[in-house]
Design a protein that fits this description.
The complex is a heterodimer of chains A (about 300) and B (about 110). In chain A, about 35% of the residues lie in helices and about 30% in strands. By secondary structure, chain A is of the alpha/beta class. In chain A, helix 1 packs across helix 10 and helix 4 runs parallel beside helix 5 (about 180-185). Chain B is of the alpha/beta class and about 110 residues long. Chain B has five helices and three strands, in the order βαβαβααα. The relative contact order of chain B is 0.15. The chains are: A alpha/beta (about 300), B alpha/beta (about 110).
């Protein structure tokens, strides 16, 4: 069972749309689990007629709790909190839970031992059945923190589902950015697909995401989404890929069929199979399929 | 805490889903959102967004239809209001900027 993660650095380049279409293509021939690790805004199940099978709460966060009976209102905790999560009301400290990162600084400085750091429910993991596959989706509770730990849990649940159905492949729709949840999405994967678009902003974020990827020493490739939008930026992306020795797996043409399919809540390869973008994603799927067929090291396929 | 929040969304099931999460968060921390509806004529669940906006007492302050000029400025890395100041969407964004300036900078 291989794990392929799709990340982008920049948001809005079409990572989820590509993940959904890639999944739709590959699930016709292989046993696939789709894992949605964009826990701040999970959308992958919306592309499919997904039937919710189960949902479980996850405690992957910590928060401070102030015991009012022990508190002497010295307010040292207010000074210690670097997240402005403790305010003062009527002379007493009050925790603003949405701002608390659970770092524990308040607990350390409290002379009365009145502050305890407790495990908190910060999200849930839903498992959906679709016609030919399973979707495991994590959702961070509103305003909660520790999204990286929740991503770890989503990946664990996806792997369990994969083992249950004897899956060939887990396709992980990663979170945007370059921070903690992205690192959680990448680690332990077999291959990283970095989605980008030919714009200066996306190239800047692509450079940043490869700074992260290189720490994991994983085989990786780039898919240029919305290709044809801006030739100069596309040339720069190709030049960057050459510099770092990473292959361009496919170029998916800019195509209004993609947002129109998204508006219809369908993968573009299902809604408009003959559209240029669909054909580009099919080419990408062919490359991803090569990973499955190799059955061994991925590097021989992607670095040739 | 921010003085004003603009939530940018699009009329797709994904946009509606994420907007609801944003509005719930803002409600929890006591902020009211103004919504910018990008790609406003996409054939998606527009009604759902309108109903949601009303339920959360959020105003749809601006609609930006799909516009090749906006796209061109994006790929060039130049703000549309500078590259195509006469475009319809540039006028809309200038209006938002003027609203912000009037409310918070004077």
């Amino acid at each position: 069972m291989k794990e392929v993660v799709i990340i982008s650095g920049k948001g809005g380049v079409g990572k989820s749309a590509i993940s959904a279409s890639l999944g739709a293509i590959l699930m016709k021939k292989h046993k696939v689990v789709l894992a949605d690790t964009d826990v701040d805004a999970p959308n992958l199940d919306l592309f499919f007629t997904a039937r919710l099978r189960s949902s479980k709460d996850v405690k992957a966060s910590e928060k401070a709790f102030i015991n009012c009976e022990k508190c002497t209102c010295c307010l040292e905790c207010v000074e210690a909190c670097k997240f402005s999560a403790i305010t003062v009301s009527d002379g007493a400290p009050v925790l603003i839970r949405y701002f608390c990162e659970g770092c524990g600084a308040c607990s350390i400085v409290c002379p009365e031992g009145a502050i305890e750091i407790k495990d908190m429910k910060n999200g849930n993991i839903a498992t959906f059945d679709i016609d030919n596959a399973v979707i495991v989706s994590g959702e961070l509770m509103i305003g909660e923190s520790s999204s990286g730990r929740l991503v770890d849990e989503v990946k664990r649940a996806a792997k369990e589902e994969g083992e249950r159905i004897n899956a060939d492949l887990i396709i992980i729709d990663g979170p945007p950015g370059t921070g903690c949840p992205v690192i959680s999405a990448i680690k332990g994967s077999d291959y990283v697909i970095a989605a980008t678009e030919p714009t200066p902003a996306a190239l800047s974020d692509l450079r940043r995401i490869f700074d992260v990827i290189r720490h994991f020493d994983l085989p990786s490739g780039i898919v240029i989404n919305k290709a044809g939008l801006h030739q100069a930026s596309e040339d720069l992306i190709r030049e960057f890929a050459k510099q770092i020795g990473v292959p361009i797996l496919a170029a998916v043409p800019y195509d209004m069929s993609v947002p129109e399919a998204t508006a219809r809540a369908m993968p573009v390869v299902e809604a408009y199979p003959d559209a240029p973008a669909s054909k580009g994603i099919m080419r990408l799927a062919g490359v991803a399929e090569a990973v499955l067929n190799e059955g061994g090291s991925l590097s021989g396929i992607f670095r040739r | 805490m921010a003085d004003a929040v603009y939530a940018v969304t699009e009329p797709t099931p994904l946009g509606a889903h994420d907007l609801e999460r944003t509005l719930k968060l803002l409600l929890a921390i006591g902020l009211r959102a103004r919504i910018i509806l990008n790609f406003s004529e996409l054939p998606g669940p527009r009604e759902k967004i309108t109903v949601m906006a009303k339920a959360f007492d959020a105003e749809i302050s601006c609609e930006l239809p799909m516009d090749d000029l906006l796209l061109k400025s994006h790929v060039e890395g130049v703000p549309a209001v500078i590259m195509f100041p006469d475009a319809v969407n540039s006028s809309s964004m200038r209006r938002i900027a003027e609203d912000i300036a009037r409310e918070y900078l004077q």
